[in-house]
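We emphasize that the prediction below concerns an isolated chain of 146 residues; any contacts that depend on oligomerization or on bound cofactors are therefore not represented. The input was used exactly as deposited, without trimming of termini.
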Amino acid sequence: MKILILEIGRRENKKKYSGFSLLEIIVVISIISILGIIIGLSTNFINSSNENPSIEKKLILIQNEIDYLKKYSLAVKSPIKLILNNQNNIEIYNNKKSFQNCELTQNSGEVLIYPSGEVTKFNLSCNINNKLIEIKINSIGKIYFD
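Result of the prediction step, given as a token string:
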């Protein structure tokens, strides 16, 4: 016994196409984009609630700033002289988060960064989350502890 199945909208001479239509692809891409934006905003919102940086984050900020200043010194082809003033900010680069709540404990308040990448050795005393941390920077600009 044969059962006839009714196929609505299908012709015998119509070619069989496989794949997705342009409309389906646009809908899927827009849904993925909206989900990506929502996830990006939610993680940014979660991270912005933590105003106090951890010790590791502060060290990374300081290391990145020193690396940037070494590259800047190379770009301008002259040494950069950094002076920490009484507001605990670098005189040339005011309001940098990396050096906030930090003060020099050696070198009479000056640090030189040369175009060769060499840095005057210096020690920073930083108040991070109400803890006084002693940070040492060697002659190549890397952070270390004793």
